[in-house]
Design brief:
heterodimer; A: alpha+beta; BirA Bifunctional Protein, domain 2; 2 domains; 8-stranded mixed β-sheet; two-stranded antiparallel ribbon; 12 helices; 21% strand; rod-shaped; B: alpha+beta; Phenylalanyl-tRNA Synthetase, Chain B, domain 1; OB fold (Dihydrolipoamide Acetyltransferase, E2P); Phenylalanyl-tRNA Synthetase, Chain B, domain 3; 5-stranded antiparallel β-sheet; 27% strand
């Protein structure tokens, strides 16, 4: 009997090992353990055996049963794995197919520079204020120390509007952001630190001028500020903006009616392979104007010039953008096509 | 202001090179716009004499010239100019020279097989306007030393400065003034060069009449001189060259001399051909609408506050200080002249100049202020030069008005100097600078000094002006730097609005819209199409039709921008702008507007191709509302978008009574106006968005209870606003968390089927089946009340 059992074990194991699909494996299981299965048959024989033998053979049958079950389970696992692999293989898709990558629109370089400048200036404690694009003669010129027949006033190429004049004179499109200085001083008591950014307008339209451009302007009104602080501030701002510690800044005497002394601000550059490289070389490029506020400007803003001094600095946003990001031709800022926006605009992640 | 280096040297003794002087000019605020430095411009150019000219063996029109330079070096030049001949002195450009006309570097070359070691130049090649028609290369006068510099031969007089003069520096509209500033800065020594009074024939005189004393409010001082028996002709070469270098054309000796002296000392002159003045010479104010024709024939209509001169014909001869008249112009027959050298009040000349829109060198100088004390010296200078060059005899100087007037004195304190400059400058140095600029010390105390301002510096009126002069001459870059004090501004809300707009820009950019910055003005016809019943603001002095009115909406310029891309063949444009609009003479308003035109997506295997539709811009608009914190369930969409929208495909968005903006398709007439064929979708968000209250957060419960979903299929009437019904269903019961439309189609022209999913959520407990049924019944009966019904019923 025992020899028979060993033979059975051997043949079952062989069959299991040879089995190559789940269905057949199930067949083997039934043939061994089913109602009339080989092991079941052997079990049936047990009851007719003498006790001593029954015990011995029974134990052996159990052993064999477990061994076969074990082997079956392992084989089942193997075959299921193979089956799954086959199924997964059959599910293959072509992942090289192109998909819809979420595209994005572009942020205008003016907004980008505006945001950079605002962050830098906020760091020195400058607050942001805004003024109207439509101004009156009084705020645009008179408070800025440009009396009616001052040549500087006629040089401003002003756009006038068909709006009724009021106590502040004719209505015009502001030619600079400076009137915001007066408005801010009238509304706040010194000490003051603020900046403004906005559109300005002059009737000039050629290759290097557009009738509209953006300015950023900052003003400090405090007891202890003068040329020394102004120079430090401008150098610091420009180094931060251009991210160039070695940038050289030059101050050149100039004239603005609203500052005394007045200076134009240049930064250094060199030309390497036809490209402007800032912070190296001995060529100079004008970037803005600055000065110590004229006492008449402080007075117009209700500030006592014997108590306070002001320092002011103004820059062109488009120029800053052009220099930092290489945007050519001023006109395209305001007359852009899709390709220009793609080339010079910024991802919304960069704003 | 243009002038030559040699002219400058008349007033400035200096050893410095033109490049060094130019650098100093810029450093003291007299910015050099352009510099013709002979060392640079005429490097590799020299004079040569043609020793031999033979025909080129391979070309009929070319010659092979053997030329010799001042050092005795020989060169072989192939030349095509017909006037190249033996003995001619010519200007040779050597290899390496930059040819002004082409801005290209000349290289050695072979012309038809013969080597040419340079090029003999024509006026055209040097970009110089030839005085006489000249065919071929420049012919340098015979006998000229070959070692002479080319710049000198061409009359460039040591080189040319083009300086831009700021409007405060009237005194620097003269070579003399510029020399004085340079000397103060340390560039050489200033030479006063005071003109000597010329010999006078006392018998020569005339009467200068004037209307009344009021003329002196306009012209405080006027000096005149008569010169008789002169001969007006062509100017000598040096004078012509000087004027050419200053950018002026030569006219006749008398006129050229007057122009020369004006540039030289800054005083403009008026010269009358006395034989053309009939009878009495009188100065008076003009009459209203009186006509005047200037020497070029330009017509002006005068007002009653312009000072003019007249004769017995009582018509204006000249607009004093501004323009000379046609009638009294000097010509080659002029024999007797009257010269006027005057001081006019700057604001009077400015007012007249602006009123008449008349530009002249004379106005430029008078309105910035000339040296009043120089009137008579200038008259002496111009008369001496005329006598010397044109002969004749001069009469006495006749002056009307006042030569005495108060001088301005300004006190400067050490304390103010320090507070403005922020640095310590040696007091001795301060005084030295101011004195070199022509100021004189009136009195001096321990902590201050008082200075008298010279007659030519109208810009110095307050202490700060003197401080600027000190800093300017001492060098801005020598001034100290001190950090700005650190201040804490605490919580700064000033950038809140700006940051909010930045985020909104990002949102729209993430939604595939690109930002545009367009002009604040637009074409009138565009503005008309978008103004509705508002008044548009007009630019009175617009420069082009495109920029004639202030935009009443951001849309017209966005459309114009879109056209730029569509014309380039782009199939789709999605752009937005955050900017100001203007109308009704009120303050500007900030709008956020966008347009979408063309293909929403291209045809591909994932998506069907489609064009943008109203629901794209509605989605833009509502996404913005959502980001702004508006509870979009409370938002109502009404009809009544502006007339430039499609009447049945647009809406006005309200929150309560606040109009937040519009969205929709634009009216076909807008397509026609801009020449856009695809349907245009647009939205405009109005500033009221900043006034809305933010939505509150819903109650939070840590435990999660299952939500129940119920689907309904309703049949509505064709014209029903389903969106409104959905919004109302949301509000029927607070257990309704969300309502979505899962299906929508038209059954017939009068009926549409809408599938709705209602999500129920009691937040803090599990809903019972009974409760869910109760809410469902509410929904159905509400829809039935509106005239809708459940499908399959």
């Amino acid at each position: 009997m025992l020899a028979e059992l060993d033979k059975l074990l051997g043949s079952c194991m062989f069959e299991i090992d040879q089995c190559k699909d789940l269905k057949k494996l199930e067949g083997i299981r039934v043939a061994v353990f089913g109602k009339n299965g080989k092991i079941t048959e052997k079990m049936k024989c047990l009851k007719n055996m003498p006790q001593e033998e029954r015990k011995r053979v029974g134990a052996r049958i159990n052993e064999i049963k477990n061994e076969i079950l074990e082997r079956l389970k392992a084989k089942l696992g193997d075959l299921e794995m193979i089956e799954l692999e086959k199924k997964l293989e059959s599910e293959k898709i072509d992942i090289s197919m192109p998909v819809d990558v979420q595209s994005y629109g572009y942020i205008h370089p003016i907004s980008k520079v505006f945001s950079e400048i605002a962050t830098i200036l906020n760091g020195y404690g400058f607050r942001f204020v805004e003024g109207p694009d439509i101004e009156s003669e009084y705020f645009n010129f008179d408070t800025m120390n440009m009396p009616e027949y001052h040549p500087a006033r006629t040089m401003h190429d002003t756009f006038y509007l068909n709006m009724p004049a009021d106590e502040h004179g004719r209505k015009l499109l502001r030619t600079h952001t400076s009137p915001v200085e007066t408005r801010c001083m009238l509304e706040n008591k010194p000490p003051l630190r603020f900046f403004t950014i906005g559109r300005t307008f002059r009737s000039d339209y050629d290759a290097t001028h557009t009738p509209m451009f953006d300015q950023v302007e900052m003003l400090v009104v405090e007891k202890d500020v003068g040329m020394a602080q102004l120079k430090w501030l401008i150098k610091d701002i420009l180094k931060k903006f251009f991210n160039l510690e070695k940038l050289s800044v030059r101050f050149r005497p100039s004239f603005f009616p609203f500052t005394e002394p007045s200076a134009e601000v240049d930064i250094n550059y060199s030309i390497v392979n036809g490209k402007m490289i800032f912070g190296t070389g001995d060529k100079w490029l004008e970037i803005g104007g600055c000065g110590v506020s004229h006492p008449n400007v402080l007075k117009a803003g209700g500030v006592d010039p014997s108590q306070y001094q002001g320092i002011a600095f103004g820059l062109g946003i488009e120029r800053l953008a052009s220099l930092k990001y290489g945007v050519p031709d001023l006109r395209n800022y305001f007359e852009s096509n899709e390709r220009w926006r793609e080339t010079f605009g910024f991802s919304p992640m960069d704003l | 202001m243009r002038f030559s280096f040699n002219w400058l040297k008349k007033y400035l003794e200096t050893e410095q090179s033109i490049a060094q002087v130019a650098e100093s000019l810029t450093a003291i605020g007299l910015e050099v716009d352009n510099l013709l430095d002979p060392e640079v411009a005429f490097k590799n150019f020299k004079l040569v004499k043609i020793e031999k000219a033979e025909r080129h063996p391979n070309a009929d029109r070319l010659q092979i010239c053997s030329v010799v330079d001042g050092e005795g070096n020989h060169h072989q030049i192939v030349c095509g100019a017909p006037n190249a001949r033996e003995g001619l002195i010519a200007i040779l450009a050597m290899p390496g020279a930059i040819i002004p006309a082409s801005n290209e570097i000349l290289k050695k070359s072979k012309i038809r097989g013969v080597e040419s070691q340079g090029m003999m130049c024509s006026f055209d090649e040097l970009a110089i306007e030839a005085e006489n028609e000249c065919d071929g290369i420049i012919e340098v006068p015979e006998g000229t030393d070959l070692k002479t510099s080319v710049a000198d031969v061409l009359g460039f007089d040591g080189g040319i400065f083009d300086v831009s003069i700021t409007p405060n520096r009237g005194d620097c509209f003269s070579v003399k003034g510029i020399a004085r500033d340079l000397a103060a800065y340390g560039v050489g020594k200033f030479v006063e060069n005071q003109p000597k009074p010329c010999k006078v024939d006392p018998t020569i005189s005339m009467n200068i009449d004037y209307e009344d004393e009021a003329v002196f409010n306009y012209a405080p001082q006027m000096s005149f001189r008569v010169i008789r028996g002169l001969k007006n002709g062509e100017s000598p070469k040096w004078l012509k060259d000087s004027l050419k270098n200053a950018g002026l054309n030569s006219i006749s000796a008398v006129v050229d001399i007057a122009n020369y002296c004006m540039i030289d000392c800054g005083s403009p002159f008026q010269i009358y051909d006395l034989d053309k003045v009939e009878g009495k010479f009188n100065i008076r104010f003009s009459y209203k609408n009186e006509r005047f024709s200037d020497f070029k024939g330009e017509q002006y209509s005068l007002n009653s506050s312009i000072l003019i001169s007249e004769d017995d014909n009582h018509e204006p001869l000249c607009l004093l200080g501004i323009k000379s008249g046609e009638q009294i112009t000097c010509d080659e027959n002029t024999k007797n002249i009257l010269i006027e050298s005057a001081y006019f009040k700057p604001e009077c000349i400015a007012r007249t100049g602006i009123y008449l829109d008349a530009i002249s060198d004379s106005r430029t100088r008078f309105e910035r202020g000339i040296d009043r004390d120089n009137c008579i010296d200038a008259l002496e200078q111009v008369s001496s030069m005329i006598l010397e060059n044109c002969g004749g005899s001069a009469g006495e100087v006749l002056t009307i008005g006042n030569t005495n007037y108060p001088k301005i004195s300004i006190k400067m304190t050490k304390q103010k100097l320090k507070s403005v400059s922020g640095c310590d400058i040696d007091w001795g140095r301060v005084k030295e600078i101011l004195c070199k600029l022509g100021l004189t010390i009136v009195s001096e105390e321990d902590e201050s000094a008082t200075f008298t301002v010279p007659s030519w510096r109208h810009d110095l009126t307050i202490e700060e002006d003197l401080i600027e002069e000190v800093l300017r001459i001492n060098g801005y870059n020598n001034a100290q730097e001190k950090p700005l004090s650190v201040i804490s501004i605490g919580e700064d809300a000033s950038l809140k609005d700006f940051d909010q707009l930045s985020n909104l820009r990002k949102l729209l950019a993430f939604r595939n819209m690109s930002e545009v910055v367009a002009y604040s003005f637009t074409k009138r016809e565009y503005a008309e199409a978008f103004r509705e019943d508002r008044k548009i603001i007009l630019i009175v002095n617009a420069i082009t039709m495109d920029f004639e009115v202030m935009r009443p909406s951001l849309l017209p310029n966005l459309l114009k921008t879109a056209v730029l891309s569509l014309n380039y063949g782009e199939r789709s444009v999605s752009i937005f702008e955050v900017g100001h609009v203007f109308a009704d003479f009120c303050d500007q308003e900030t709008h956020i507007s966008g347009i979408r035109v063309g293909a929403a997506n291209s045809r591909n295997w994932l998506n069907k191709k489609r064009n943008y539709d109203v629901f794209d811009v509605k989605s833009d608009f509502f996404s913005m509302l959502n980001f702004y914190g508006v509870n979009v369930k409370n938002v109502k969409i009404e009809v009544g978008a502006p007339s430039y929208y499609h009447p049945s495909r647009s809406g006005a968005v309200y929150l309560g009574k606040k109009l937040l903006g519009w969205f929709g398709e634009l009216h076909p007439r807008i397509n026609k106006l801009f020449g856009i064929s695809d349907r245009i979708m647009a939205f405009e968000m109005l500033p009221a968005i900043n006034e809305v209250k933010k939505k509150r957060q819903r109650e939070y419960n840590n435990k999660i209870f299952p939500k129940i979903e119920r689907d309904f299929s309703f049949i509505f009437k064709g014209q029903d606003s389903v969106g409104k019904v959905i919004n109302d269903i949301c509000k029927l019961d607070n257990r309704i968390a969300k309502v979505d439309i899962f299906d929508s189609f038209r059954i017939s022209s009068t009926q549409k089927s809408i599938g709705i999913t209602v999500v129920l959520d009691a937040v803090n407990r599990t809903l019972t089946e009974n409760e869910a049924n109760e809410v469902s019944d509410k929904v159905v009966s509400y829809v039935e009340k509106l005239g809708g019904r459940l499908r399959n019923q």
